[in-house]
Amino acid sequence: MTGPEIFNFDQGSDEWLSIRSGMPTASEFRHVIAKKGPRGGVPAGRQKLLWRLAAEQITGEPERTYCGPDMLRGKEREAEARSLYALLKDADPVLVGFIRNGNCGCSPDALIGADGMLEIKDAIGSIQIERLLAGTLPPEHVAQCQGALMVAEREWLDFMSYCRAMPPLIVRVYRDEPYVNALRADVAEFVDELDALVAQIRSM
To answer: What is the CATH number that goes with domain 5-202?
Structure first.
């Protein structure tokens, strides 16, 4: 890793899609760390990610992934969730488009001060109740949150689960150095596989 570089393109813009094209990002690290599928072999999510990123490198064109209703709702409500966070935490969230660090990147929902970050997830009511009762970082988001801290080289991240008409869940996640070190090795291994696949296809 070469140190974080911040790009202030609007998330979802053509420039944002281009700068992150062909590289693994924190939102996809759950696939990067998956080494075996439930029945052995390469997990489907990891394989599809390898193919997509290889295609983006070879063609030079980012592939637009499907944006379902839950994701669209989250995009629509992200600003109001961020404003609520700012009020509750007396914070001044700073918007950035993309952070690149060597061969990987992340798109945080905000940077907080010199050491923090914000990750917002919109939730339907039943999921929000489940999260509020648990009161912890949902396990399916650990790789993304620790990955964002790795990429941005920051110390903590506030995970915010937001649902209108319900209390928000805000969980502070601190950098887990052993986890980050293992993740960094997994990303390097994944990128080696990606480079090999790109070379294989280009030699055909």
So the answer is: 3.90.320.10
